[in-house]
Prior knowledge:
The protein is α+β, with helices and mostly antiparallel strands. 66% of the residues lie in helices and 9% in strands. It has a domain at 58-128 and 141-166. α2 (58-88) runs antiparallel to α3 (96-126) and α3 (96-126) runs antiparallel to α5.
Amino acid sequence: MLVLLAFIIIFHITSAALLFVATIDNAWWVGEEFFADIWRVCVNNTNCTELNDTVQDFSTVQAVQATMILSTILCCIAFLIFVLQLFRLKQGERFVLTSIIQLMACLCVMIAASIYTDRRKDIHERNQELYAQTSGGSFGYSFILAWVAFAFTFISGLMYLILRKRK
């Protein structure tokens, strides 16, 4: 039982770490001489431009930013609630509250990655002055980590739903 508990805790912390890296790091769209993410666009590793309200379709970028931040916060809250429920739940009860919050984090990261997947091309085309040199790029590791974090949070949420407290 202790091994299972350690695995669940490590799995949850890994999910949170993936969400932090995917949200913070600047590698959602990368190429030879540039990298772009949900916060800024950098050309030649020195010339960085923050994304602000002058960007067309900035509301789309804000939606991705907000849902990624929300997913990270929800994942951390779910971990804290799990730790509290370890001491407060009666034997045989399920970790339903932790599961619901973790699945909400899963939903948020899925929404963020889906919006970015669908709208990235439109944002780049409508802001040619900012994204002029980014046409030959590909999805970066932060984008991939966001999708991996989606899978991890989903599996973690299901584990909490199935898990019962034992002695």
